[in-house]
Amino acid sequence: MARTARQILSALADERSVHVRSTAELAAQVESSTAAIDKKRREKGQEALRRKPELRTVNRAECARSVDLTPWQVLHALSRGYMLASQGIGRGLAEHWLSLKFCEALDGSRAGSMDLTEKGSSSERWYKGMQARELAVGFGLAVAEHIVQQRYPDHIVSVVDTSTVLRAGWPLSVSQRNKGSRPRPDYLIEAWKPGEPSKVTFVSCRGNHQKPSKRTSRTGSTTIQQLVKGSELTEGMQIGPWNTTPCLMLSTELTGQGGVVVNILQSPGEALLPLRVPGAKGNADEEIRDKSGIPYPNAIRIPASGGKRARTVDGFQVPENDLSWFGQLLARTATAGLTAFAGGGPTTARYLTARQGQKHYAAPTFAATSSYHDADIEVGDTKFVGTDHVFRMETVRIEAFSGMVPELYELIRNGRVEEYRQTAYELRSKMNTTDAAEKWNGPISFHGDGSVMALSILPIRRRRAL
Fold first, then answer.
1. Which among 361, 335, 353, 336 has a CA at the least distance from the CA of 90?
2. Residue 209: pLDDT band by 50, 70, 90 thresholds?
3. Residue 297, preceding bond cis, omega within 30 degrees?
4. What 3-state DSSP class applies to 202?
5. CA distance 332 to 133
6. How far apart, in whole angstroms, are the C-alpha atoms of residue 343 and residue 387?
7. Domains in the chain: boundaries
8. CA-to-CA distance for 129 and 118, rounded, in angstroms?
9. Which of 12, 264, 328, 353 qualifies as a FRET site for 208, CA 20 to 30 Å off?
10. With the CA atoms of 363, 367, 372 and 374 taken in that order, what torsion angle do they form, in degrees rounded to the nearest 10?
11. At a CB cut-off of 8 Å and minimum separation 6, what does 432 contact?
């Protein structure tokens, strides 16, 4: 029986359990797969691919066997993850509509687990491929943010698309002759707190529809391959000394047994960015320029170990003398993502460098594809400002809103990033998001950075007599 629009919106707001798998068996399967891949490469006379030297399971204290999320929180994570990733004249649709096409794809099973709906389980290959690429990013980022938040509970977590950050200083392709892309993590998660150095985590997100074999408890081969790929991607970037940045590799099985299953392995470490002082040189309020970057080849320095000499290999490395610049870059790019989420336009452009696509956000967009900061909603006693879009579920008109707390947006609009972070941190403990959500008639999701995303049914429009 088809669900009504109100039932769909209600399901998006219901908290469900997302299964998480991070076991020694999973790590062993990935290690076995990498050994088999390297053996085949040696037989062909090829070098082994570089990967993280050690993969471990995630601590149960940081992520238990399941994480409770609403489908709308997953779509909020997906939407924020793609901010700035799709630049161009149609950016409004690319950034704000990306997650909305999955509104009818998620629900809960009778056991209370997150699962695909009958509509979300479409057998169409193009739809399944799109889900595996995009919806899995929402699950992966939501769980990765949860883990990082558990590691740094008194911090705010920001997600930034890695390619957007790297454009400011590094060539993304391998060389001018070979246009293949250089391996790199999909996302950077920055855990920040005013007055302390930021902590950075690399994230790789993949997804598939493969179910584990009924004859064995072993994880599906596609999942294993995606975790192996994640190990290769995260090895392609380093912050400071080699192998000190923590990494999370995630592969989401959208049709796993018992509902959605997120498989996770990690490479431990800690990457700290230098402490910035508001008002002092090097703070995030200062406009920064693109750097010339490190040309191909030989960018990552791997120290001597296990009888091997020190060597330099191709990849993205932030040298220790560039860590302050990189901290500024990361903070300003995250701020640009927030303004794009709230319909920033020119405000977004001021926080990007030329190579990051500044001109795309300063230029006008085509009709029906723009996203402008001119809408607001009230949730209980709290007001949010941002942008909205209207779409339909059958004949019902739905309004999608994405925005921020007004005082936070004003600080960003006026170029005061450091003050924004201080104020956002102070407001974080004062906002009762659970109480506010109960006062909203539809799905709504809040984030510690001051952003909000919500859906609501619009009143029926009366047709005028001709």
1. 361
2. confident
3. yes
4. strand
5. 27
6. 5
7. 9-344
8. 16
9. 12
10. 140
11. none
For strand 382-393 and strand 396-404, is the pairing parallel, antiparallel, or unpaired?
Answer: antiparallel
Place of tokens 């005028």: 464
* Cα angle value 249/251/255 (rounded, 5°): 165
DSSP label at 196? Answer: S
Strand pairing category for 237-239 and 316-318: parallel
Structure confidence by residue, pLDDT tens digits, 15-61: 999 999 999 999 999 999 999 999 999 999 998 899 998 899 999 88
Q: Comparing C-alpha atoms, which of 122, 143, 158 is closest to residue 205?
A: 143
Q: Amino acid identity of 418? A: E
Please tell me the pTM assigned to this model: 0.92
Q: How far apart are CA 51 and CA 273, in angstroms?
A: 24
Name the region of 253 (left: φ>0; alpha: ψ -120 to 50; beta: rest).
beta
pLDDT at 197: 97
Helix pair 5-12, 71-81: axis angle to 10 deg: 80
Separation between Cα atoms, residue 113 and residue 99, nearest integer Å: 20
Which tokens go with 198? 């930021």
- What the block records as the tokens of 193 is 């707190």
| 303 vs 57: CA distance, rounded Å | 25
Question: Closest by alpha carbon to 192, among 377, 424, 366?
Answer: 424
Record the tokens describing residue 347, joined without a space.
């405000």
Burial of 309 (0-12, 13-18, 19+ CB in 10 A): exposed
Task: Return d(Cα 233, Cα 222) in angstroms, integer.
Answer: 16
Q: Which one-letter DSSP state was computed for residue 322?
A: G
Q: Which of these, 402, 333, 352, lies nearest to 374 by C-alpha position?
A: 402
Q: Strand 16-21 relative to strand 261-267: parallel, antiparallel, unpaired?
A: parallel
User: How many other C-beta atoms lie within 10 A of the C-beta of residue 163?
Assistant: 17
